[in-house]
Amino acid sequence: MRKYAVLLYPDFSLQEITCLTSALAIWFGEKIDYIASEDKEYRSEEGFRILPTWTCAEAKITDYDCVMLPGTINPLPALFDDALIDFLRSGVDSDVVFAAISSSPILLSKAGILNGRKFTSGYFMQMADAFGFVEKENFIHKGIVEDGNVITGIGMFFREFAEAVLRRFGYDIGECFMREKPEDFSEDELTFYWTDEEYQEFLEELKAYAE
User: Fold this and answer.
1) Is the pLDDT of residue 211 over 80?
2) Cα 98 from Cα 62, distance rounded (Å)
3) Nearest CA among 131, 74, 124 for reference residue 108
4) How confident is the model at residue 67 (pLDDT cuts 50, 70, 90)?
5) Domain tally, the chain
6) What is the mean predicted confidence (pLDDT) over 1-11?
7) Is residue 168 part of a domain?
8) Cα(3)–Cα(31) distance, rounded to whole angstroms?
9) What 3-state class would DSSP assign to 18?
10) Burial bucket for residue 169 (CB in 10 Å: 0-12, 13-18, 19+)
């Protein structure tokens, strides 16, 4: 079974990664660890409050097949979080797939993971000018860029970002990943039934609430 991790930091964006994380967890039954530099509550930019599974000190990055980095409207706290950057840096020259969206590729740049790699990002270009570790000559102005074991994306292309990661790992997501239109379905296709076995399981579960 593959191992996946999401990095947490202040003001991370759930919206940019939930197409990916929900498909991994719900469609394909994968377990996802949430890793942060400290064992404390992290608040997303949407206001959700999340606790990490492991700290950077407790986890080993090379134990994971894929490490996902959500964007953040406030990248500086993560960018100057030495524990977080050192954790990423420990994955340089590994086979870990790094999937970073929106502003988060700048964290990969600081950790040295983007050295010599083509990438994209949704941060303002003045930020790239402010930091010498950003290889601007390798910045590609496209929605999704893949180079070796790194997948980067701009935040508005969150669905395409999820699709790129899922296809990288060979998941069967069909030809129209999360693109179906409601009007393209019939009434029968939009009417849902459990199997007899699933319905019996539901009735058994219901008993605990009905007593």
Assistant:
1) no
2) 11
3) 131
4) very high
5) 1
6) 96
7) yes
8) 7
9) helix
10) middle
